[in-house]
Amino acid sequence: MNARIGWIAFNTFREAVRDRVLYNLIAFALIMTAAAVLVGQISIQIERIVVVNLGLTAISIFGIIIAIFIGVGLVAKEIERRTLYTVLSRPVRRWEFIVGKFFGLAGTLVVNTFFMALGLFAALFYVAHEFTRADLGLVVALYFIVLQFFLMTALALFFSSFSTPIMSSVFAFAVFVIGTFADELHGVASMLPGVSKALVTGFAYLVPNFSSLNVISRVAHNDPIPFSLIGLNTVYAMLYSAAAISVAALIFDRRNLK
Amino acid sequence: MPVIEISGLEKRYLVGFWRKREKIGLHPLTLAVEKGEVFGFLGPNGAGKTTTLKLLMGLIFPTAGTANILGLPSYDHRVKARIGYLPENPYFYDHLTAEELLEYLAQLSGVDARNRKPRVQEMLSRVALTGSSRVQLRKFSKGMLQRVGIAQAILHNPEVVFLDEPMSGLDPIGRREVRDLIQALKEEGKTVFFSTHILSDAEALCDRVAVIHLGELRGVGAVDDLTSRVTGQVELLWQGAGAIDGIVALGGKIHATGEIVRATLPEANLDAAIDAIRRAHAKLIAVTPVRSTLEDYFVEKLGADAAVTMTGKTEKTGARS
To answer: How far is CA B129 from the centre of its chain?
Structure first.
């Protein structure tokens, strides 16, 4: 990573950290985790399952919301406020700006996830009074959630490279919902004949497969996560994010700034 | 070799819902600016000044033509390390302090780590913002933001500085300071290209000016030449006797302020006018040839559009030009 990308990423991270909206979302996620503890207390014998399910889901949803809503504004806000002018009039290539913005928000989400995960582990310790080897699965689930954030940030950047922030949010959220049901989409395709089968299969491969990155339920029930899935998901998320960012950078490279 | 070479640079936009209507932002523009010059790019609001600067900065792309800065195409990113740019009505990251912003932009400009902090402090002091260096930019007034904008434009010691309406939003003292700063940049051997619609600033600072209107270059000239042109008129100043009828008859336009009367009339009638003053037993104070001003040149170049433009000549800082 060249120095300019690093500086842009750091500035993006600093901006997000100083943004009060971000603190509200984190506070809300922590409250959700606290709520999980309360629900866990009234769920006899299944406290851990409830805490893990609710906690991880809260972290995932709020992270996705941050990725979409901050992600779509990353470039748009800089164009709108013309802060980009003083950046691009320096020896900064446009693709470096896009990549720097991606790493800045991705870094922010990793740090947020870390703090939200601390809340989750605290809640878990409160209900279970101990950590077991099975709890390592939580780390894998959190890692997959972070991979989802990377995908979502890249997609938000991609949509915002040619669309308005509002439309980009709609597109990004729609893709998230469809991607969450990517496995079902493959199932539907297998039941269709001819051209429609090919079209739906193609579409199912095109949308990011968020369902394979969701292991919350398996972790909550202590099901082991195979190493092969960790490797494949990592490669998949990295390649998909890189592709989305590359297309965003290509589009942005040709864009007239108003 | 010119420092800035613009050749047939043109910008057309497709507008309307179906993008079928064409709007010309800049007619083919050819212009050259020499090293060490302070070059004024004059025009009323909406003339195409900002469009030209954005094309030179690579923020928008030309429909046709080329622009070279320091011998390299303006889009070449090696050029960007050697130029500085102040956008019109600059706006910066709210969450940063002036010091943090300048450090960030110095990093992006490739200022080495050892020189970065001293250079930032030097710039803050140069634009009189040392006392506010740790205040977040969201709390800055428009004039303070303009000063930050100027500081960031010269932060990395560029060879060529582009300033888009640098006096905009500044109070009279701030404007004076910016004028001094541009003068200092010239003394340091830097080339300054600045756009403005305030003619007194251009007249005080520029070696040469170009007048642009409705996206079209209307004229280029050296300020000294433009302001030393003899208009064929003389100004007479006398005391006592009030407005003298004989001078009015010679085509004189008379303005009286108390005892002092001033008349402007054709140079050919000067002897007859002096005789008339003598006959009226008035005290002749001065005879001065009337020279043209930059405003005369500006109005001349704007032609028929001038009347419309001059009525709306107040400093509309929010408008794009």
So the answer is: 24
Interhelix angle for A227-253 vs A94-128, to 10°? 150
What is the domain count for chain A?
1
Half-sphere CA count of B298, side-chain side, radius 13 A: 23
Tokens of B247: 């001078």
Asked if B53 contacts B281 with a C-beta cutoff of 8 angstroms, the reply is: no
Flag whether A76 is in a domain: yes
| ipTM for the assembly | 0.88
- Within 8 A of B107 by CB-CB distance, chain A residues are 3-4, 7
Which residue does chain B place closest to A90, by CA atoms?
A: B80
Report the 10 Å Cβ neighbour count for B286.
9
- A195 domain residue, yes or no: yes
Residue B316 — very low, low, confident or very high, per pLDDT cuts 50/70/90? very low
Please check whether residue A25 lies inside any domain of the structure.
Answer: yes
pLDDT in tens, A176-195: 999 999 889 989 988 998 89
Whether residue A91 and residue B77 make contact (CB cut-off 8 A), yes or no, is: yes
* pLDDT at A60 exceeding the cut of 90: yes
In a domain, A258, yes or no: no
> Is the torsion defined by CA of B300, B305, B310, B314 positive or negative?
negative
Query: Domain span at residue A149?
Result: 3-253
